[in-house]
Amino acid sequence: MSSIDSSSLESGKHDSLPLVNSGSLENFIKYMGILASSSESQFASAVLGEISQQREQNHLQDEELKKLRSEILDIKETKRTTIEDMFVANENEKAKQRDFSTQIESLRATVDEKESKISEFSKNLRTLQQKITKLESDLSQGVAKVSQSANDISTLQANLKEKDKMVDQMKAAGSKLKSMLSSEQEKNKELAAANASMNTELQAAKANMQRLEGFPIQSSDVDENFVVTEFRSLWTSATSELSPLLDLDVPKDTLKEKPIWEKLRKTDNILLPPSFPLIPSNSSAAKAVRFALILAVLFREIDRRIFKASYFLSESNSLREALGHLAENDGEKEAFCRRILLSIDPRAEHVAQKAEIRAVVQRMSSYTDGLFPEAQHDLFCTKIKSIVQNAAEFWLPIQRSQQKFETDFEEPFDPDDNEWDRFPFAGENTTPVAQDHGPYLLIVFPCISWVEDGDHNPLTKIIQLRSSQELYLAAQHEATQITTSATTRRHSARPRRQSTARSNGKPFLGGNSTNG
C-alpha cells in the first residue's frame, strides 16, 4: 500500500514539473540583450530576471522534491501521516506551477508585443536616418548656395562701387552737357532764324526753277528699241516705196541725154570714183546701181535738213556740231539746250520743218529731173515727200529726247569689222561674209548712234554698196562694153548700130531686166 502510494506520488510529482526548453530560453535572453539600450528592453530584462529567478526556484524545488522523495522512501513507514500534508503541498506546488506557466505565457505575449514595437521602432529609425541623410545633403547644397551668394554679393558690391563711380562721372558729364545744351540751344535759335530765311530763299528759288523748267519743251520718252525699230522702218518704207518706180525702164530718148547722167553723177557731198558704173541702161545691174545712188542722195539730204536739232535756225552745221560736242561732254546740258531751242518758237519750228521737207523734195526733184516721164516724175516726188515726212515724224521725238542720238555716214574704221550690211540687190545675200574684202564705193544708208560719255555707240549698221557685189560687177562689165563699143564706133569706117550687152543678172527688187 505504501509502495503504491509512493510511486503514484512520484509520478504525480513528475507530472507537476514545468516543461521549459532551456536552450530556446537562452537564445531568447541573448536576443533580449540586443534590445537592452531601450526602455522596452529594460522592461524585458526585468521580465527575464524574474524568469531566471523562477527557474532557480524551480531548480531548488526540484532539488527539494528529490530530497523529499528520498526522505519519503526512507521514512515511508514513519511518515505516512504526513502524506496527505505532502499531497496538499504538492497540489499547492502544482497550482504555483500553473500560475508560473500563466505568467510565462503572459511574459511571452509581452515579449511578442515588445518585438513588434521594436520592429516598428527600427522601421521608424531607418526612415529618420533617410530623412537625416537628405537633410544633410540639402544642408550641403544650402551651404554651397550660401557660399555662392556670398561671392555674388561681393561681386555686386564691387559692381555697385563701379556704378557709383560711373554715376559720379555721368553727373559731371551731365552738368557739362547741360552747359553745352544751353549753348547749342542758343545756336539752334540762330540756325532756326537762318533756316527760315533760307526757306524763304528756297521757295523763291523753287518758284524760279519751276518757271525755268517750264521754258524747255516737254521731253519725250524714247528708248533704244524704239529708235532702232523706227530707223529700220524708215529704210524699209523708202526702198518699198521707190523700188517699183525705179525698176521701170527709162525711156530710150532719156538714155541718150548725157546731161541727165552727168547731173546724176555730180552729186553734193558724194565723191564717186571715175569707174562708178552709172550707165544709161535698163539692165537690172544698171537699175540697181542707179537706185543705190538715188537713195544715197536722198538720205544725205534727209540727214542734212531733217535730222538736226532745230529747223528755223541757221542752216549751217555749226549748231549741230556744237551740240554734238556738248553731248559728248555733258549729255544733260545738251538735251536741255536742245529742248530750249525747240521751245523758242514752236510754230516757227513747225513752219521751218515744212520748209525743210519741201527743200528735200525740190532737191530730189531737181536731181532726177528728166530721168522719168512727167507722170512718173510727179509720182516720184509724191513718194519722196512721204518718205521725208516719215523721217520728220521719226525725228520729232528724238529731237526732244533726254538722250542724244546721231546719224552717221562716216566709213567704218575697219571694213572687216562686220558693222555694215551690203546694199540689198534682189536675190543676192546681203549679210557680210568673211571673204568679202572688196572696198565699199557708196554708203547708201547711215547708221544711228547713241552719244554718251564722249562715245558714239552704233545701234544699227551702215548699208554700203560694195565693189564685190554681183550686180555691181555686172554693171561695171556693162559699162566697159559700152565704152568699148563707143570707141569702136568712133574709129570705124562705116557706121554701125549701137550694141548694148544684156545683163544676165537678176531683176532688182523684182523688176524686169530690159536693155535701152
UniProtKB/TrEMBL annotation:
Coiled-coil zones: 104-208
Alphabetical keyword list: Coiled coil
Region Disordered, annotated ranges: 482-516
Superkingdom per UniProt: Eukaryota
Entry keyword annotation includes Coiled coil: yes
Biased composition (Basic residues): 488-499
Name of the protein: Uncharacterized protein
Organism: Penicillium salamii
